[in-house]
Structure formats: C-alpha cells, structure tokens
Amino acid sequence: LLFPVSNLCGKCRPRDTDLLQPSLNFLYWSLHQTTPCSQQRAVAVLLSNVSLLELLQKVLECTWLWSPPSGPACLSSESALLCSGWLLVASLLLYQHRYNTEVHQTLSLDLTEVLNAVIFRNKKPILLLVSIMQFLRAALRQNFSSSLLVIVGQDTAQSATQPQPSSLQDAALHPLATQQVFSLVVSLQNLLVHKDLLLSQAVVACLETLVEYLYVKNQDVALHVTSQPWHRFLLFTLLSGGQKSFLQPEVLRLMTLFVRYQSSNIISQKEISQTVQEAAEANLAELPEATSCALHLFLSQV
C-alpha cells in the first residue's frame, strides 16, 4: 500500500487536506509500526518518490503562512495537515540516517523560519508546536548534516566579509546563531510553564537535544545555557500547584539535565536528596512508565 498511497500524495496539492491528512498519517504509522526489515524498505520507497518529497516541501512551507483561526481554539484541518507533515519529515530524517538510504530529492528549509515557529508561538496549537520540535530534534541530532535536508537562512557571505565580535562563537554553532540559541531556550522555558503533559515532554526532549548539540559544538555556551538562574525558578514553578512531587517526568528529566552538566546553582544536593527520598517512599511498581524511565535516568546520572 505504501507505493500507491505515496504516489497519490505526490499528485495532491497542500490544500487537498481531506485526502492528504489520512494519507500522510498512513505513511507515518507505516514507518513506525512495522518490522525493522520492512521499515528499511518503506523508507526507501518514500525517499525514492520525488513527487511526495516535493509535496512535503510545500506542506512545510505553509507553516510560515499559518495564522490562528478566528473561531474556537481547536486543531483545524490545515493545522492537522501541518502536524502530519512535520512528523513524517522528522521520521524520514531519522530513518534515512539510520539506514543510510539513498535520497532522490532533498528538502530545503529556512532554519530561521523553523526556529521562529517555536520562538514566536502566535497561538499555534500544542500539537503543531510538538511536531515542529520533533523535526528540530531530528535535525539537531544529525548536526543539521542530513543528506535529505538542506538548511538555508544564514548569510554566510556577509558574515565572512564583515566579521562580528561573536562571529567565532556563531561559527562554532553553525548553522545556529548564538542569539537564536538563547531565544529558543527562553521560548522552551515559557512553554514548560503551560504544564501540558504532551508539550512538556516535547519541550524537555528538545532542550536535552539542544544542550547535547551545544556541548559538542561549544562547551562554554552549553554550560552557560544550563546554568541560567531562570531554570531554578522554572523548576519550582513546575513543582507548584496541585502536584508538588519531584517524581514528575518533566521535572526528573530537567533535574537529570542539570546534574549531567553540573549546574549546581540550579539543582542542589538538597533537591537531589529530596528526590531520592521520594523515590524510596514511592511504590515503584505503580509509577507510570514515563516516570519510571525518567527516574531511572536521573538515578543513573546521579
């Protein structure tokens, strides 16, 4: 079925949402719900379909033209299609890298536009933000060097002829700019305050991947990002309200991140002891899977 469905998608236009929405979802789940052997073949089928990749390029570019609906806050058909497009492309990036699949058509994206879609939320639905962050994570994990993806958006000629004081730092983080990194981190912090479970998981995962990328590129920038005092305020904001336990997946994963990069001004021995004490008193068998995994990572890091 992958072959005819992907061909069908290639014949559509981005506004054919009624047909494209279930079709892209079918392609996405076909990649994720199959055996490793079939998965490799599925990736090859999709990446050999030039018309499909051209269609995906157009769908993603519709994100820059997206505007919030005037009616009730809900996921419109246009927003849902954008979600499916970003999730499918993120998966193709992941599996193309895993299987080193031949690419017949590249996708070209302006990195500034991608980052601005997250930094300037503009009432975007949570699922759309999560989908874009999934893509951003996949690109970061591959150092923006996937053979499927061409990143544009930075004027390298200008920076070469007119070097700025921060040009060396920006060159180390390329294609990210230092200011983009700081803006993205602030935006991720703000999104965490919404305390939506799906959004929190995506935000923390994106923050983890971003810091890993930064640490490889420039350790000083990575440590500067993880030691920002605002993180401590954010941590205790997440602990306020109804559920004050440290045993919340997003709290555990944030604390793991700060322990890993030795941000002692953000998480102290006291918080670590409190978390271990809570874990000792909890019924571990009854913890949700996400909490168990996050707790395991935290204790291993400690």
From TrEMBL:
GO terms for biological process: meiosis I. InterPro entries: Immune_Signaling-Apoptosis_Reg. It comes from the Eukaryota. This is MEI1 protein. It comes from Climacteris rufus (rufous treecreeper). The lineage of its organism: Eukaryota, Metazoa, Chordata, Craniata, Vertebrata. The gene is Mei1.
